Amino acid sequence: MRITLILSVLFLLGAILTLEVYRFFPDYKSAFEADQQCHYEALSLFEVEGTLECDHDLETRQWILFSAGKNNEKATVFKRFRY
């Protein structure tokens, strides 16, 4: 009974650790690839979502696809492209 509980807890901790480590791997190998994908999706989604923009965030090493807010509303982030 205790061994089953210990093994279950260890399995869950291993699964959580694996997911957390995977989360920090970048999706793209360079800023250029992330930039190209962001602008491609901005043009692809233009008809559906309206005006979309891409912005480069140097601190977090990602391109951000967003729709600028109107009348001083905050922007809506659609996707992040980490590199």
What is this structure, in a nutshell?
The chain is α+β, with helices and mostly antiparallel strands and 83 residues long. It has helices spanning 2-23, 31-44, 46-49, and strands at residues 53-57, 62-67, 76-82. A three-stranded antiparallel sheet has the order 1-2-3, with helices on one face.
Describe, in plain words, how this protein is organized in 3D.
The chain is of the alpha+beta class and about 80 residues long. It has one domain. It has three helices and three strands, in the order αααβββ. It has helices at about 1-25, 30-45, 45-50; strands spanning about 55, 60-65, 75-80. The protein has a three-stranded antiparallel β-sheet with strand order 1-2-3, with helices on one face. Strand 2 and strand 3 (about 75-80) form a beta hairpin. The longest helix is centred in the N-terminal third of the chain and has 22 residues, at about 1-25. The chain is elongated and about 60 Å long. The mean pLDDT is about 85.
